[in-house]
Amino acid sequence: MNQLNGDASSISGLLPQQIAQIETPAPLVEVSRLKRNLDRMADYARLHKLQLRPHVKTHKTTVIGAAQMRRGAAGLTCATPREMEIMSSVASDLLLAHPPLGLKIDRLLMLPRSVNIVTALDSAAAIDWVADAASGANRTVKVYVEMDVGMHRVGVTTAKQVVELAERVAAESWLDYAGICFYPGHIREAVDEQSAKISALNEVLGEVVSALERARLKPPTVSGGSTPTAWRTHEMPLVTEFRPGTYVFNDRTTAALGACKWDDCAFTVLATVVSTAVPGQAVVDAGSKALGREPMRGVNGEGFGALMGHEDVLVSAMSEEHGILDLSRTDWRPRVGDTVRIVPNHVCIVVHLNDALYAVDGDRVTGVWPVAARGRMAPFTDEQARAAAPPSEILL
Questions:
Q1: Taking each helix axis from N to C terminus, what angle separates 159-171 and 124-137, rounded to the nearest 10 degrees?
Q2: Which of 8, 330, 383, 385 lies at 20 to 30 Å from 54 by C-alpha?
Q3: Are 123 and 54 members of one domain?
Q4: What does each C-alpha distance from 262 to 213, 217, 251, 252, 311 come to in angstroms?
Q5: CATH number, residue 82
Q6: Strand partners, 52
Q7: Residue 25's pLDDT is what?
């Protein structure tokens, strides 16, 4: 098996044939929906002549990263050095959308020379740090100057600051000024209610790009975007590249925002009903360690997930290994031993809790995909592993 039909080579012998053979709780990916989501975003990018650089933080798997590249992605976006290291096997152009300070930049510079490294920076200190490391490694790093357009997380806040940092990058021989970037994470309204904030964003972008052009630093790339705003990126005429992530799987939040339909949710957590002893509820074996504990973001919504096929049934409360299903809004009554599929509020968090994802087609399992880019540490060499594990009697 290969490509999006599954690659279980690294988990040989563990592949069940049917969903009924999977021990719960477990993450399922409906491959037909995933393919549809991938195709739809790639088609949108081509239609509007936008460069698609999807964020891998959602899926953290090389099989999906490779599928995105085959569909024409300009490169991939990563959040951690670990993601950069893993995705370097399927893409030769990688953006770290997080300032790589400290030892992180050293890890980036150890990536294969065939990989084009891009990073987003928002301070003189970070620029100097990356420039010194790049010089020492005799390797050029491309830099986006990051600007804040409303989320107030990272990014400089004025056009003057953007120009000053762009000038600093351009002056460094081992850095390549590649443009500017932003993340519109403050736009969490429903898709059809985003117009006012998109208009304000366009004003900010216009001011910044004009200032850069006056300084003879016209940005080669203007990179932005998120899944909630993805389908309106063409209404941001200065944007040349966008970086949605959640769209590959979608989740309860993106469905509530109108960024996808409910049947575009490709990811669910398979859980087993373990108790119906308390009237008006059922308990499943998926708690916070399987579903995360993130509330709905940007829209009103109770609970921590909803059941596929019974959308009025919410996971109303959780402990670590127990999830409470609220049955007050439905006549449906599950039995002990029944399995259900839960659409989580925020899929990115849930993927990170798992070692592998089960690719499914209906009730059939077609593959097991390692979540290879989870975690933060680089893989130990044999020598490092021995050094890190002294004889147990020394420790205990």
A1: 20
A2: 8
A3: yes
A4: 43, 44, 8, 8, 9
A5: 3.20.20.10
A6: 242
A7: 98
Structural domain including 156 reads 34-249
Q: Residues 47, 53, 55, 61: is their CA dihedral positive or negative?
A: positive
Structure tokens of 152? 């107030």
Q: What are phi and psi of 312, to 5 degrees?
A: -85, 0
Q: What sign has the CA pseudo-torsion 299, 296, 232, 80?
A: positive
Residue 15 lies in a domain: no
Instruction: Give the type of residue at 233.
Output: T
Enter the tokens of residue 263: 């049947």
Q: Are residue 74 and residue 52 in the same domain, yes or no?
A: yes
**Total domain count for the chain?**
2
Distance CA 204, CA 176 (A): 24
Tokens of 100: 């790589």
391 CB-near residues (< 8 Å, 6+ apart)? none
Place of tokens 């096929």: 309
Q: What is the mean pLDDT of residues 332-351?
A: 98
Report, as an integer, the average pLDDT of 56-74. 98
Would you give the DSSP letter of residue 350?
A: H
Q: Is the overall model pTM greater than 0.70, yes or no?
A: yes
- Give pLDDT tens digits for 176-193: 999 999 999 999 999 999
For 30, the token pair is 């409906």
| Token pair of 74 as six digits | 């300009």
Asked if residue 25 has a cis previous peptide bond (ω within 30° of 0), the answer is yes
DSSP H or E run through 26: strand 26-30
- 198 and 284 share one domain: no
